[in-house]
Specification:
By secondary structure, this protein is an alpha+beta fold. The chain has helices spanning 30-35, 46-69, 76-85, 90-102, 108-121, 127-136, 141-148, 153-170, 176-189, 194-205, 210-227, 233-246, 251-266; strands spanning 2-9, 15-20, 23-29, 43-44.
Length: 267
């Protein structure tokens, strides 16, 4: 048995030095000091000393975890990784995680539900990207599916359509077909299914501006027509038409624009 001969305050707030038999033995947090009722003159055996030291390791690890959780919601995996980075023993990590779950500081389902809600409005994403992010954060498949169930098809259409409208501005100088393809690709990258992306694009179809399409093809046709001005008429038409097809314009519109270009050349 060893006797506590001195308890002194450390420079670090909330920490105390414990001297046993007139020699420094270990440090403890205030919570551990209170938990074990440590006081001058108390006798401690080796098993109790080991328990006290382990409890102090848990208390320090808990402080690390709570500081990390103070910034935002975290998953169990993320908190474990944070403690791992701090070189906290796995045995201590498990005790901290158990306590945090019991106190509802850690709840992967709650994290997933909040994450999905955030991705509907802030930096909008589709379910596929959200699912990948949650899996990477360590959320179970069951919890992911339950959280994604809160992201209804109707909400996805609203979000995807808003993103499609923004993308349409970016590709406003493209042909309708090319614009639609690029918008669908952009929505897929954001995590929406192909069907959902097509549905969002179909909402824009009613807003299709024939005048813009005509202006776009005329601009592209003028460039190509000038580019191939050294070719004979037949080859010039072929190359211009091919270039416009590649841009996604329809045959009827291409033929109409080419006819006008040839008429102007004949003047």
């Amino acid at each position: 048995m060893k006797i506590i001969t001195k308890i002194s305050v450390q420079k670090q707030a909330g920490r105390y030095n414990i001297d046993l038999d007139n020699q420094f033995a270990f440090g403890v947090s205030e919570s551990v000091l209170i938990k074990y009722g440590l006081a001058k003159g108390r006798e401690l055996d080796d098993d109790l000393i080991a328990d006290i030291k382990l409890s102090d390791e848990v208390a320090k690890a808990m402080r690390v975890a709570l500081n990390y959780l103070g910034h935002s919601l975290r998953t169990i995996k993320q908190v474990q990784q944070k403690m791992h980075d701090k070189e906290i023993p796995e045995q201590v990590q498990l005790q901290v995680i158990t306590q945090l779950e019991a106190q509802h500081y850690l709840d992967d389902l709650n994290y997933a539900i909040h994450y999905v809600a955030t991705k509907k409005t802030i930096s909008p994403k589709g379910p596929i990207v959200i699912k990948m992010a949650l899996k990477q954060a360590g959320v179970s498949d069951i919890n992911i599916e339950e959280a994604l169930a809160t992201y209804t098809d109707e909400e996805q259409i609203i979000v995807a359509t808003q993103l499609a409208k923004k993308a349409a501005v970016t590709y406003k100088r493209e042909s309708t077909r090319s614009k639609q393809q690029k918008i669908i690709a952009a929505l897929a990258k954001k995590g929406f299914s192909f069907d959902m992306a097509q549905n969002a694009v179909s909402h824009l179809a009613a807003e299709h501006d024939d005048q813009s399409e005509l202006e776009n093809i005329q601009r592209e046709a003028d460039k190509l027509w000038r580019r191939y001005h050294r070719d004979d008429n037949s080859k010039r038409q072929f190359k211009t038409k091919k270039g416009l097809y590649t841009k996604g314009y329809t045959s009827d519109l291409i033929d109409s624009v080419l006819a006008n270009l040839m008429l102007e050349d004949d003047k």
